[in-house]
Each structure stands twice: as structure tokens, then as C-alpha cells.
Sequence to fold (289 residues):
Amino acid sequence: MTQINNSDTKSESNNYTDTYTTRYGRKYNAATNYLLPMDEGDRSSSSIRRVYRDHQTPIKEQLEKGISVLDSACGAGAHWTLTMKEQYPNCVYTGVDISNVFPAEKYSSVNFVMGNISKRIPAPDESFDFAFQKLLGLAFTREEWDSNLKELYRVLKHGGYVELSEIYAVSACNTGPLMDQVMNAFKTISKSKAIIVDKAPYELEHLLTKAGFTNPMVIIRNMPLNHGEHGKLYWKCMRAAYEILRPQFAQVYPEWNEVSFFEDFLNSAEEECSDTKCYYEWKICYAQK
Fold:
């Protein structure tokens, strides 16, 4: 990795524009099968992004000196990018997202650009020293995962690192009968869109190796739901996702079409999670080019 000046940025011509469609009364990006809508700042995944603003790749010294960093699918508010800028102000940051959900405020050494990262990341070859990407398990098909990781490999400099961070969204642990229903609904609607949400997090290291990366390292954290440290916050984040997905879940459980019924169901599921000590696994995997 090489130290860079704050003016050392790279870009390429990008004619991508976002288009939207309305489903279930919500605004979705028409270019993706992403299960969550893009209106209201995608409040569920955005909330989780606020919780996780860290990185695990062992490059603190390089970050302190200043390198070029990509936040791939930075999401509404670009919370990870802005937190990293505060911690490592000598770096130059680029945030890419498929939708125009970037902060309105302008920041020095931070550039935001729209692009479909499953097809082409809008940057020349070997532009970045470090690429970070998270919470796309609800978005990609098998083919899109392969294409995306090849793109991350292309835009990274030789010796650069990539870090992926994903939740096992449809495979919570220690579930009771109510959360089993939520997991079943999750799996059913994801499979209907060819999204491999139930497999991709398990295979991050293999997907990275397939794309050409070396020495993948894996870290697994538990994400408790309504118990333990941060459990209430994690449940609040996931409940927001379940509420947004309710119209799609109702294709599996029609009684969930009734909002009040579903709210009562989630209230009971919340208590169940506390009783069974239900949790998600959060998998972090980093590797080198």
C-alpha cells in the first residue's frame, strides 16, 4: 500500500442513473432485486450500518498515514465512510451506491458516485488500497456476487485489502416457533428472486478466493436479539426490516397482510427471542489482492 495525498483521487466517466419502481406502496430501485426499499433512507439497514462502523482488516498504520478507500454500497447516509473519515482524516474516500442516497453535505477528501456494483464499479483498475462492503445478502444473486467480487478485485491495487461483512439474515440461531416462521418467510421470498441470502454469508471466503483474492480471514460475531449487550438495539433494527418486508412475507403467511396482526406477532416474537436467547451470526471476512 502506498501513502497518498488528499488530492490523489481517481474517477472515470459514469453515465449511470437510478430508476425506481413502486411495489407494496414503497419505492424500490428498478435495477436490483434488493428486498428492501430505497425510500425513507432504507431505515432498517441504515440503522444496522450505524451500529457497525468498524473494520477488522489489520491496516491501521496505513490508514493513519493515508490511503485510498472504497465504501462499496455505502448506503443511506454513508455512515461507515463518514466515521472512517473522522478516525483516519488522511485518507481519500469514495462511496458508491446504486441509489442517490448520499449525504447532502459536502466533505473534503470524500467523493460519492452512483453505480451498480454488481456490474461495474465506477473507477479505473487499481484505484484503491482498501475496499469495504457490507449487508448485501438481501441483494445479490449468485451471478451478481461473482461479478461484484471480480469488480472489487479489479479496482483494488496489488497488495490491497477487501473486507466483507454480512449477517446470516435468514438463519437466526436459537429460534422458537415464531422466529422460525420469520426465517421461513425470509427464505421463501429470497429464493423467489434468486437471491442467495441463505448461503452467501457462509461462503464469503470461498467467493473471495474464487475472485482471485488470497489469505481470507474470517471473524464471526454474535448479534443477540432482545437480550445481552446491544440486544434491544439489534432487535429494533431487525424488527424494522421485518415490518418493511411484511407485504412480501404475507405471500407466505397471508394473515400477515393485516398490520395489527403482524405487529402483535412481532411483539410476541420479541419476547420469544429474549426467552430462547435468539441471535444472528455476523460474519466478517477480509482478504488481499
Remarks:
- The CA atoms of residues 80 and 195 lie 25 Å apart.
- The longest strand covers residues 156-167.
- Residues 20-168+194-224+282-288 form a domain with the Rossmann fold fold (CATH 3.40.50.150).
